[in-house]
Specification:
single chain; mainly beta; outer membrane lipoprotein receptor (LolB), chain A; Cathepsin D, subunit A, domain 1; 13-stranded antiparallel sheet; 36 strands
């Protein structure tokens, strides 16, 4: 079954904390109820699944290579989708306007490649969709794993409705056509939307029956996606290189013979400002490890003369419009970047008088070197990959980069979470609602949070698209790798906001990072924390 997913922002960029005379929180209200019109049925779950298994069929030659081509349209852009699958490995490539992305599995490693040609290996941060698929496949023999037949409906199609909601998955409803036994609709609940996929135009090739036309909707018409298979080939064998993992293109160019470049950067109250020269003019960007790409504000994009492609509605601290573009050349001091794919969105900030930030410098730039952020001396240095040699005192933190943001394990109280984001764009440390709900005792305030609230009773964070209410709380232990702090203050989000996503536990921001020189080594999927004088003087670490 072919499914599509819209591009999403990996995480909200939380940039400032203030006190307000009244709360500015934004709650979410995604419909989590079953589809309407369901009535009892005499069919059983096993009968429905067995009919589907028979209807979909089995490949005549399961070892044949499958080459598929689609026409797609979404976000005001049209393009193509091309996939090759062979003996368990696959590569799929999507082109929309001037932008191309790919993903695949080579038999050992799952990977993805973004618009700037940067490849990351996927470690499995997101498992909910896969958990739903496994639960549905296993339901014939293990029907108690969160899968149940709710009944049948007559509209929008005459179908049996099966609810899939395993403990480690997401809530989903699958519509099995009463006449054909095939899946012609799914509805999935995400934190910020209810996603509906519909499937039509079923055809049988090589013994398998599948939809040749589909439609995706997340409730906002701007993001609707339509796709249609235009060609399907089966070949007994192909060259294995057609499903091999590619290499990242050289994106950040160093001067000839140079292995270390000090960047035109300033650190102002924890905000890392980097100057980019574009079209002969200087623009200040926030160095933001919590951003999965490079972003430019709408007004700045117009000043740069950038051509905008497409339009999407995204959700972070609130809903906002985004578009895409390409910067022909951008210089960061002596470093150069060419043909830089960027996302255009509403973002400006003034961290100091005379400084206006007009964009976010995220993954693609950081991944182009080993980036060293020295909070003590307020400098940022880029090293060619694998030049950095850690000192014996350095803490080594493994990082997953599935979403092109560094995700690490951390301990809060006695609870552990594997999905905390190291975010140079965040002032403070934040705990998302999902983690709070699972570990209420570990995030219970020891008193320090109440003292802050007495002084500033209403607090909020400002991010792209809106604002989010905050609550300070003092936890007994905060630990990442070998670094341990006691009586540490973090900020929770009492409202059910989209920042929590599904799979992230929280953000690790400047209040923690300032104790170190932080080295981002994305090539080796590691972050190094070199203790500085502030760390050595700290009385809260043990």
């Amino acid at each position: 079954m072919l499914t599509r997913a819209a591009r999403v922002v990996a995480v909200a960029i939380i940039v400032v904390i203030c006190a307000l005379p009244q709360t500015q929180a934004r709650a979410k209200g995604v419909d989590q109820n079953p589809p309407p019109g369901i009535v009892p049925t005499t069919a059983t779950l096993q009968q429905v699944l067995a009919a589907n298994d028979k209807a979909e069929g089995k490949a005549v030659d399961p070892n044949a290579a499958v080459i598929e081509d689609d026409a797609i349209s979404t976000n005001g852009l049209t393009g193509t989708y091309h996939s090759v699958s062979y003996r368990g490995a696959y590569v799929s490539t999507t082109t929309l306007g001037p932008f191309t992305t790919s993903e695949g599995y080579d038999g050992q490693t799952t990977w993805s490649e973004d618009e700037n040609g940067q490849v990351v290996q996927v470690q499995g941060v997101h498992q909910r969709g896969a958990a739903d698929e496994r639960a549905l496949v296993d339901a014939l023999t293990h029907p108690d794993n969160g899968v149940k037949l709710l009944g049948e409906v007559t509209t929008p199609v005459a179908a049996y409705v099966v609810e899939v909601n395993p403990p480690d998955g997401r809530k989903e409803w699958v519509f099995f056509d009463k006449t054909t036994g095939l899946i012609d609709r799914t509805e999935q609940v995400f934190p910020d939307s209810r996603v509906i996929n519909t499937y039509t135009d079923f055809k049988t090739r090589n013994g398998r029956t599948e939809a040749w036309t589909g439609h995706y909707s997340d409730g906002d018409a701007t993001n609707d996606e339509d796709w249609h298979i235009t060609g399907l080939q089966f070949k007994p064998q192909i060259d294995q290189s057609m499903v091999a993992e590619p290499s990242s293109r050289t994106f950040v160019e160093f001067p000839a013979g140079e292995t270390s470049v000090k960047l035109p950067a300033r650190i102002l109250d924890g905000r890392i400002t980097v100057t980019l020269t574009i079209g002969g003019k200087g623009y200040d960007f926030l160095l933001d490890s919590g951003s999965s790409d490079i972003n430019v504000d709408w007004a700045a994009a117009q000043k740069m003369g950038l051509t905008q492609y497409g339009k999407a509605v995204e959700d972070a601290a609130g809903k906002f419009n985004s578009s895409e573009s390409v910067i022909p050349e951008a210089d960061v001091g002596d470093l150069k970047m060419h043909n830089v794919a960027v996302t255009i969105l509403p973002y400006t900030e003034q961290p100091a008088e005379g400084t206006e930030l007009v964009g976010l410098l995220g993954y693609d730039f950081i991944a182009g070197s080993e980036l060293s952020v020295d909070y003590d001396n307020k400098t940022v240095t880029a090293l060619t990959p694998r030049q950095y040699v850690p000192t014996p005192q350095a803490f080594v933190i493994p990082a997953a980069l599935d979403d092109r943001i560094p995700v690490v394990a951390a301990q809060i109280g006695q609870a552990f979470g594997d999905h905390f984001i190291i975010d140079t764009g965040a002032d403070l440390g934040y705990i998302f609602p999902g983690f709070v709900a699972e570990h209420p005792h570990d995030v219970a305030d020891k008193g320090g949070g109440a003292s802050i609230s007495d002084y500033e009773p209403i607090m909020y964070s400002e991010g792209i698209g809106g604002e989010t209410r905050l609550r300070p709380t003092e936890v007994g232990v905060f630990q990442i790798g070998g670094v341990r702090f006691e009586d540490w203050v973090v900020y929770t989000m009492p409202d059910n906001v989209v920042q929590q996503s599904e799979d992230f536990d929280g953000l690790i921001g400047y209040d923690f990072l300032r104790y170190f020189t932080v080295i981002f080594d994305y090539a080796d999927e590691q972050i190094y924390l070199e203790p500085n004088d502030l760390f050595r003087r700290s009385e809260t670490r043990h």
